[in-house]
Design brief:
This protein is 35% helix and 16% strand. It is α/β, with parallel strands linked by helices and 360 residues long. Strand 2 (99-102), helix 3 (109-117) and strand 3 (120-123) form a beta-alpha-beta unit. The protein binds pyridoxal-5'-phosphate. Pyridoxal-5'-phosphate binds next to helix 2. Pyridoxal-5'-phosphate (PLP) binds at residues 80-82, 107, 155, 159, 186, 188, 213, 215-216, 221, 226. Its EC number is 2.6.1.9.
């Protein structure tokens, strides 16, 4: 039994989860064990949805394992990485006792899942440095130990901060917290970064897990396909906690089509283009008098501070451009996060903010 299994809630030891009609490994050519309809719905051309899906579609698990450089046994497919975050918190944290550590300003789902589970939220603010918003690694380690964190979320590249966490820092946290906490590296934007995936560390450090998603670089946000890569024993536990049929057949079919060699090649080209656009938007924003700071970004968005963020937000809105208002986030009272769009869309952002300068 691997060490990380000791991090699972004690009361879930031996929990078998729901035993679905698809759990038992039976074979036959007439399936009358799940009360499914005998005929397909006329709206279901091809009839692919008449029967319940495989809980973890084998072809998709294989494709995702290959995509992310993991073993199939280390992969859990869920309804977006959001579901994986929730499964981790529910499976590892005892309400009222265990903690979930994250580094604000950061993606909101860690806090939401912790709150819903009644787990303590342990917040270690990012440091605003010349290199951008970065985690305070020593403070993360100290707070995790003091607050009995079972989970430490490192968002890399971070949303909305934009910076990758160097693998050396991930190793420092994982080493210091071995036996105490699982270090979850959320790589939702990993495709846009230079830093290698923390999956490469998992052979050496069993308490590292990685979140990936098809929602961002792969352009399949509505398919809701997220992947957790973790210790195989832990994945087996989480599969028992997960809902019975979490991956709808049309979604896994779409994901498989989106991971064909041809689709992946096109996605890779688009990532290159977004990275070029990132430099272009950052350079343009840095020239504007209305902008007070442009943060470095390893992701598909740019975070910037404005002398008058409200005026900038409203000017963009009036031009039909909706960006993310970050002003309610800690440390970001004057900041907007702009997702990189097509070159034409980015041109519109730049032109709108240029015009704002003229009237300011
Ligand atoms: C967008 C995002 C996700 C959510 O991904 P889904 O797979 O669509 O649930 C996870 N983490 C971060 C940091 C994100 O920005």
């Amino acid at each position: 039994m691997s060490d990380v299994l000791n991090l699972v809630r004690a009361d879930l030891a031996g929990f078998g989860g729901y035993s679905s009609a698809r759990t038992a490994k039976l074979s036959g050519d007439v399936w009358l064990n799940a009360n499914e309809a005998a005929w397909a719905n006329p709206g279901d051309e091809g009839g692919s949805c008449r029967r319940y899906p495989e809980p973890q579609p084998a072809a998709l698990v294989t494709a995702l394992a290959e995509l992310y450089g993991a073993q199939a046994s280390q992969v859990l497919v869920g309804r977006g990485s959001d579901e994986a975050i929730d499964l981790l918190v529910r499976s590892l944290c005892e309400p009222g006792r265990d903690g979930v550590l994250f580094t604000p300003p950061v993606f909101g789902m860690y806090a939401v899942s912790a709150r819903l589970q009644g787990a303590k939220a342990i917040e270690v603010p990012l440091l605003d440095t010349d290199d951008g918003l970065v985690p305070d690694i020593e403070a993360v380690i100290a707070a995790a130990i003091a607050g009995k964190a079972k989970l430490v979320f490192l968002c890399s590249p971070s949303n909305p901060g934009g910076k990758s966490v160097p693998l050396a820092d991930v190793v420092r946290v994982a080493t210091a917290l071995a036996g105490r906490a699982l270090v979850v590296v959320d790589e939702a934007y990993g495709e846009f970064a230079d830093e290698p995936s923390a999956v490469s560390l998992m052979g050496q450090y069993a308490n590292i897990a990685v979140l990936r998603t098809l929602s961002k670089a792969h352009g399949l946000a509505a398919a809701r396909i997220g992947t957790l890569i973790a210790d195989a024993g832990l994945i087996a536990v989480l599969r028992r906690v997960q809902a019975p049929y979490p991956v709808p057949t049309p979604c896994s079919a779409l994901a498989l089509a989106g991971l064909s060699a041809q689709a992946r090649a096109l996605t890779a080209q688009r990532v290159v283009q977004i990275r070029d656009e990132r430099v272009r938007l950052q350079d343009a924003l840095a020239q504007l008098a209305v902008v007070s700071r442009v943060y470095p970004s390893d992701a598909n968005f740019v975070l910037a501070r404005f002398h008058d963020a409200e005026a900038a937000f409203q000017a963009l809105l009036a031009a039909g451009i909706v960006v993310r208002d970050q002003r309610a986030a800690p440390q970001l009272g004057d900041a907007l996060r702009i997702t990189l769009g097509t070159p034409e869309q980015n041109d519109r952002v730049i032109a709108t903010l240029c015009a704002l300068k003229a009237t300011a």
